[in-house]
Amino acid sequence: MTRLDTPARPDDLILPPEDILDAGALARALDAAAAEASGGTDRAAALRRAAVPILAEAMNTGRAAIAAAFGARPFDARPATRAWCWLTDCVVLAALDLATQKMHPLPNPTEAERIAVCAVGGYGRGEMAPFSDVDLLFLTPYKITPWAESVIESMLYILWDLRLKVGHASRTVRDCLRLGAEDYTIRTALLENRCLGGDRALAARLDTRLRDDLFTGTERDFTEAKLAERDTRHEKQGERYMVEPNVKEGKGGLRDLQSLFWIAKYIHHVRDVGELVGLGTFTAEELGTFTRAANFLWAVRCHLHLIANRANDQLTFDMQVEVAGRMGYADRGGRRGVEIFMQDYFRHATAVGDLTRIFLTKLEAAQQKAEPLLQRLLKRRKKLRTGYRQINGRLAIADEAAFLADPLNLLRLFEEGLRTGLLIHPEAMLMVTNNLGLIDERFRHDAGAQKLFLDLLLKHGNPERALRRMNELGVLSAFIPEFEPVRAMMQFNMYHHYTVDEHIIQCISHLARIERRELIEELPVSSEILKEGINRRVLYVALLLHDIGKGRDEDHSILGARITRKVAPRLGLKPREVDTAEWLVRHHLLMSDTAQKRDIADPRTVRDFAKAVQSRERLDLLLLLTVCDIRGVGPGTWNNWKASLLRALYRQTRSVLEDGMEALTREQRGSDAKRNLREALPDWDARDIKREQGRHYAPYWQGLHVTAHAVFARLLRDLHEDEIAIDLAIDEDRDATRACFALADHPGIFSRLAGALALVGANVVDARTYTSKDGFATAVFWIQDGDGHPFETSRLPRLRQMIDKTLRGEVVPREAIKSRDKLKKRERAFRVPTHITFDNDGSEIYTIIEVDTRDRPGLLYDLTRTLAAANVYIASAVIATYGEQVVDTFYVKDMFGLKFHTAAKRATLEKKLRAAITEGAERARE
After folding, report:
1. What's the pLDDT tens digit per position in 281-295?
2. Over the range 256-294, which residues count as b (16 or more CB within 10 Å of their CB) and which as e?
3. What is the pTM (predicted TM-score) of this model?
4. Do the Cβ atoms of 326 and 303 come closer than 8 Å?
5. Among 15, 36, 48, 219, which one has the highest count of C-beta atoms within 10 angstroms of its own C-beta?
6. CA distance 692 to 703
7. What single DSSP character describes residue 381?
């Protein structure tokens, strides 16, 4: 066998080489197979058939040994990646030896009959995850000869038979130079070529020609190309704080670290990242950050591959749980181990971003990278305050000693950045992080520091820019130590798109956009409130602190309010302002919960909410905080449905606060609704109008808008008892499809309608049903598709058909829904405990049952079917979905039209509901 030649020393592997592969035994087995192989034209094929099982066994045994060692030392990524690479080298070299010495021996090769086999890309760098691609370059001096073609073909067939994912190219040195000049991807792969075996002089010649004829003089072009690739990749992958990141391609991932090394190697010809310290590119501390981040990210990637048993770099929710478990993260302090793991992940990703910034600035200083385009366009120098200067269009410190003499300059730097619009120079950032100790208790209680911080929030129109940079550099946590626990904290659910700290900054960004009048059309009420004027100090501080209590055992709203009571005075708020900020943080979910989990058509709901809010000032502040909080959750979370609910609750509550509780009564709503119906049906004669107004009970008039009243009036006008009338219409203002049904009333009607809607993939967001005095049921459901939008017009006929079949008994939802009521694999990792509450005080005439549990397609049908079987009358249902969690709220009466007053009745009903949830959850996991 050819001697194995790898970059990995024995002490560089996760376990001794002989425990991975017995090279001698492998060589003997292959020699024996070669001796037994028949001669003739099919000798190569026969030898391949004999050799592949031998190589496969050796490779699989080695992989299992490495995986076991890595499982025992789950953070030792570098020696593990080297070990997988070393094992692959052994297999490739064995294939090369078989092809050149046994299958196609050539005793006297000519000058043209030479070949070098090189590893390129990540394999060439010597780093491999368990299922990484094996990228090979077959290098020949001239055009490929028939012998070289046979060698290459035999090697590839062996490697493919071993189920390796091989990327390969057969080229001459001239080909490499020509293609590398045309394509930066090829050039990058060649940059990391490593000769495995064959003609080493030929491989050395390639290295020399690449350096002299391709790399030298093109450093700036290569750098710009790699940075452009990075920007495109980030745009595709999304934010660094997106909660299902791609470990390889995502922002702050392995590819970002590799890009830094590629550029450094291209410019400085280094072979190891440690050499960058001697060149002044990184400090020893920054090198440590690089090494720790690379090791952590590689560990995560390797565990992902092993769990999936294939190449997989996407850290999906289900994978996060398994990787966290493999790496030893356990639940503690009210947080799941997976959340602690992901917080570490995001902190490493942030560190990668910091390193990238430092590295690029050094390149700019050396003129290897062009200035940012914006800075080139705005070349006119801005007038800077004393103590600052511009370097390559960035804000820098003129005299470090003088700057640090006044610790408050650590905040003034960010204010100057906002004032001038300049990005802060990385050397200035490094100086800040190295001197965070200056931000002590005295600093935090300094009135000047408090004013500076509030000015950052209030004065410059884009506070999120300063806050994000302060957060990344540790300044925010130093100034507000209570913020440190939520920095890079992930919330393990499908609702929140960002980490807690990024969510807070996103919320403040949305508030600033409303203030800049950018969202007038989308948020007219919020925009008008800000135009009229509110206490901005209170609002910005409350928004900054509203989720600061997350991640502990205690309710985060209660803990956050206590923290606000302590922190708000330190930020310069006056006692009355502190009271208001504390109230806002304590109740920051109140308006959202009331609007989305309660029937705001019930006057009692609005009056109770108004009693809690107490003043117009609090109402205005709470609406703005609620809007920004929902919009800051992530793209697509805010929609017209939520907007319409919040606007309706705001306007009704404002009316109560300004005109008194008497402004909102059931009687007043009923008389207004009947008057509005007369105006909505101008072509109806007075007798028909009077008949329609007299056929419904009071709750019908109090619970629906006049548009629904008009629809039902038309549906019922000539309806017979054996007919079903359906009206489907897209309600653009609410981002939902309104489905109205009129038919003869019978028990369980609500449940059957819910089942029919589930069968066509409709998500119910609101529903209510009434019975007329002449025995007809009038039910209205607001439904959305799986993406939270109204059903497309083209899908409405099928929806109508399914509803009609279900109501006529042609389709039985309980059976038909089983195949649809399934959880996706990535969604099964979530734990959502079930909470069921009964409220007899929130409505004057109904018991409110709130079911908070794990969402799934058939849940609403199961719950309503259970209630119907227990002879419970459902008047209305409000459904609020938060990712994998859902809160279904039912306004109900018992069979006698009474509330559920007795504890025994409530306990029996709760037991039945829990049984239905458990049974359905088990079915969904099958």
Report:
1. 888 888 999 999 999
2. bbbbbbbbbbbbeebeebebbeeeebbeeebbebbeebb
3. 0.83
4. yes
5. 48
6. 16
7. P
